[in-house]
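The record is passed on directly below:
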Amino acid sequence: MSGQFIDIDAELKMHYEQTGCGDITVLLVPGWTMSTRVFELQFEYFRDSQEIRLISYDPRAQGLSSKTDGGHTYPQHGRDLHAFIEALELDRIVLGGWSFGCLETLAYVSQFGAGRLAGFIMLDGPPRAAGDDNGREWVTSRHDDADGSQAFYNLGRLQDPAATNREFAAWMLEDRSEANIQWLLEITQQTPDNAAVLLNATAVFLDYRDELRALEGRVPLWYLMRDGRDAVVADWARDNTPSARVQAYGEHLMFWERADRFNRDLREFVDACRR
């Protein structure tokens, strides 16, 4: 791994990591308030690969990237992703978003198309942030906030960030050891609270289901969910993107906690994208 920075525009200097080389690039986008650090075990696995180039970056205001005053919406993050791809001259990309990073990758597809993509991965994230029933629909929260998730992530991050961040970190994990929670707290706290809240609050207006449907038949699709979410996602996939591979294991951070299995699955998916 080699941490580097690249100027995206006059105010945004983006931090990224990369390793390996090859005829195909895997580009992984972290979720809300997260950074490249969550993919550390993927970088270790693909270190010095001669087949696959692995890249991840810290989105605007996250990780080590610039803490900008504005731009805290996923459509803007999609434009940042486009600028990043252009700057590194990336092509034949297997593009994967984790959690709300899926909104970032779909925002990119919505605005710039799928011409550079060789595959598309959804890691426990939705194509639409909010719906009527997050127990039966492939969404994260409810429009009426009956589950309290919007109040938790938005008001909580403003009124009691320490407690909110700790509960958020614990929710992501199977192994809720203090060391694991502290590691995630270090990452999420790198994002200023106001930026985190703006990004989350504006996400509820986004619906990229049509963009995901349009990828059917164009590139291989892989939806990996945490345990218990595969049935809802499989139902949606059957009706909308029947070619998609749907799996579920672990909790929200399954690619870190179950890295051996995930890395094998990722390599298998990338191989399928070459065909």
In short: Residues 4-142+206-274 form a domain with the Rossmann fold fold (CATH 3.40.50.1820). The chain has a mean pLDDT of 97.
